[in-house]
Amino acid sequence: MNLISSSCLLLLRSFSRNIHRRNIYPLISRLYTEGSSQTTVELSKDQLQKLRDQEQRFKRRLHSVHRKFAVVPENSEFQGRHHVYFEDGKGIYRSTLGHDDQEMLEVCNADWGGDGYGTIQRVRLSPSETMLAVTVKKDHHEETRCVLVHLGGLILRQKAPLVLDNVLSFEWATDDVLYYSTQETLRCLCVFRLHLSNSEVKTTLVYEEKDPEFFVEVSRSRDQRLVTINCCSKISSEVWFVDSKTPLLFPTLIQSRQPGLLYHVEHSDNCLFILANTGANQEYQLLRAPLASPSMPHWVPLFSAVPGTVIKDMELLQDHCVFTVKDSQCRVQIQTLSTKEPRQFNTHQLPHWACDLSPQRVGTVDRGSFGFLLSSPVHPPVRYLFSSREQKLSVTEDNTKHISLTEFNTTRLQATSQDGTMVPLTLLHMPALSELHKAPLLLHVYGAYGVDLSMAFSPEKRMLLEDGWALAYCHVRGGGERGLAWHQAGSVLQKRRGVEDLASCIQTLHHLGVSRPALTALTARSAGAVLAGALCNHNPLLLKAVILQAPFLDVLGTMQDPSLPLTIEERGEWGDPLMREHRDNIASYCPCHNIIPQLYPSTLITAYSEDRRVPLSGVMKYVQRLKKAIQVCTTRDGVNKRVARVPVVILDLQPGGDHFGPEDLNLSLNESARQLAFLYTELGLDHQKTRRRQKERSNNLTGKSHRPRN
C-alpha cells in the first residue's frame, strides 16, 4: 500500500536508471546564455571551455562509479508461481523456479509498444501467471502504453501482444480480466475493464470521475482478492472495489468522499483494513470493517501510531500488519501488529544509516513475509525480509560489503524555524562534525504535496561524499516526513513556512561549523524549486550556487491559467488565485515575481522543451528576470569582477517533455556531469586536488575498523 496520494503521482514517481539499459539516443543539449553586456551573467568562451572540460572529466568518473554499483540489489527481480522474472528497463526475461542455471528467455520487449516507446515502467502478472501486463513509456515524453503478453502454453508469445494506449495504472482481477486507468493531458479520470476471451476482447467503462480536482488510479490488495479504484484530491479520497470472485460486476463504494477524509484500504479474510486520517491530529490510524459492510459507521479502530511517530506505509500479511513509520528526527522504523491479537505490537529497529525503505516488487505474493530494500543516499541498497511466522527481521542478501564506506556518519539534527517549530535535518558526512568547517556542503529540499524528500541511494551522492562533501537533507514543512499535519503546515496560506524552515536549516548548519556560505550549494527539482527560488530572493547570501531541475518557478502565472493541465487540481497545494487572500499569498513568495537587483547565487537550470507539468514559458521568464536583476545590480553597484565573481545563470535546455529527466543512463550521466562541473567551478573547488586529499584520508583509515555512526 502506498500512502502518497494518487494526485502526487502526477508530480513524483520513483525510477531507476539501470546500467544495463542501452544508449539509444545521442545527446542533444545547448547552454542558453544570451546577453550582451560585459557586466551581465554571460560566460566567456574560456569559462565555457573550462566548464566543458570539467564536465568530460566528471562524465568519465561517473561511468566508473555506476559500473562499481551495477551489482547492488534493486527491485528488478520478481517471482511468479512457476518462474522468476528479471526486468532491465528494455526487456523482461524469465527462467523456471529452482533452475538457476537455466538460460533466461525473453517474454516481453519495450519495443513491442511501437516506434518511439522504449522504457518499461510497470509490470503485473496475472494470478495464475498466464498473462503479463507491462507499461512502456514514450522516449523523452510521459505517454505510456500497456502491452499485454500471453504467457500460457509451451511456446511463449503464441498470441500477438495486445497494446492499449495512454494507460497509467492497471491490475489483474483474474487471468482474463484487467482493470486499468487512462491518462489524458496528465489527468486520470476514467477506469476501464478489459475482458479477454477466445472469441473477443471487450472493453467497458466502469468509472468516470467528474470532479477535476480528483485523480484516479487502480491498485490491488496484497492477497489479490480486491481490485480497488482510488479517487484522490489534495483534501479527500474515495475508494471503490471489485471482488475478484465476481470480476464482471460493477465496483462497490466503500465510503463516499468527505472534505478532510483521506483513506486507503487493504483486505484479508473478508475484512477491510483501512488506514484513515481519523487519528489524533488527523493523522493515520488503522481501522477494520467487514467487507459486506464497508462504510464508515462500521469502521472499528485497531491501532494508532506511537506518540512522536507517524505512519508512512503499511503492508498487510496473512496475520500481521507491517507499518513503516518515521520518528521526530525522520528515522525509519518497522512496527508490526498482530491482526488476530491487536495488543501484540512490536518495534523492529533498523540500521541507523537507513533513510529510505522501498518495498520489493513481487509477482505472486508470499503473504507470510515482507521484503524490502534499505538504503541511504550514500549507502547501497540492502535486501531485508520480515517473517511474520518467526517474528524476525533479517538481511537476506548483502552484496554491498565490498563497496561499503570504511567510515561515514549519519547525523540527525533539528533546526529551530522562525516560529519555533523544530525542523528535522539529516546530515551525511565522512569527517567528524567538528571537522566540516572547510567542507563543501550540498543541501537538498522539496517540501510540497506531502511527499518525502527522496533519500534513496545515488552513486553521484556517494561520489560527492567520498570527495569530502557534506550532504544535508532538509525535511521542511510542506513535505510528508512528519505526517499529514506537517504537509498542511506548509501548504496553501502556509507555504512560506517551508522557506523559513529551509533558511533555518542552512543557518543552523553554518552555526554548527558545517561549511560556510562560500562553499554551500542547494539543489531542488520540480516543486522544490519554489522554496529554493524564494530563499534566493530573500536570503541570497546563504548560498554560493543553486541547481534546479525541471523547476516550478512561476507559481502565480501558472495557477492563474486554468487551461494548463494541472492548475485546477493543484489548488489544494498552492491556493486559488481567484481568491484575493490566496493570490496575495502566492505573490508574496513566488520566485518569478520577487526578483530584485542583488547578487544572487550562481544558478544552473535544467529544463525540458516540451515539459507539460512545468511550462517552459515560466522558466524562461525567471531566467530573463534573474539575469536582468544581476546585470542591474552589478552595473549600479560597480562590482569589481576581479575581486568579486559575478554570478552566472545557465539554462541547460534539453529536448523532449519528460519532466522526470532522461531514462537513458548516458543522458542521465551527461546531466549529472554538467551539474557537478558547475558546482566545482562555482565553489572554486579543484576536482583533482579534492580526489587526492580524499585518497590520502582513505589510506590513513586503512586497517582500521569503523562502522557508520549515528
CATH-level-2 architecture of the domain at 405-664: 3-Layer(aba) Sandwich
Helix-strand category: alpha+beta
Per DSSP, the total helix count is 11
Topology-level CATH name of the domain at 405-664: Rossmann fold
Mean pLDDT: 86
Quick overview of this protein structure:
The protein is of the alpha+beta class and 710 residues long. It has a domain at 405-664: Rossmann fold. Strand 22 and strand 23 (320-326) form a beta hairpin.
What can you tell me about this protein's structure?
The model is unreliable at 4-41, 153-158 and 701-710 (pLDDT under 50). The protein is globular, with a radius of gyration of 25 Å. Strand 11 (177-184) and strand 12 form a beta hairpin. The protein has eleven helices and 37 strands. With 710 residues, the chain is of the alpha+beta class. One of its GO terms (cellular component) is Golgi apparatus. Belongs to the peptidase S9A family. It comes from Carassius auratus (Goldfish).
What is the topological layout?
Elements: E1 30-32, H1 45-68, E2 77-79, E3 83-87, E4 91-96, E5 105-109, E6 117-125, E7 131-138, E8 144-150, E9 162-165, E10 167-174, E11 177-184, E12 187-196, E13 201-208, E14 215-220, E15 226-232, E16 237-243, E17 252-255, E18 263-268, E19 271-276, E20 285-290, E21 300-304, E22 310-316, E23 320-326, E24 332-338, E25 345-349, E26 356-359, E27 369-375, E28 382-387, E29 392-397, E30 409-416, E31 422-429, E32 441-444, H2 459-466, E33 470-474, H3 484-488, H4 496-511, E34 520-525, H5 528-538, E35 545-549, H6 555-559, H7 571-574, H8 580-589, E36 602-608, H9 616-637, E37 649-654, H10 665-682, H11 687-701
Helix pairs in contact: 1-10, 4-5
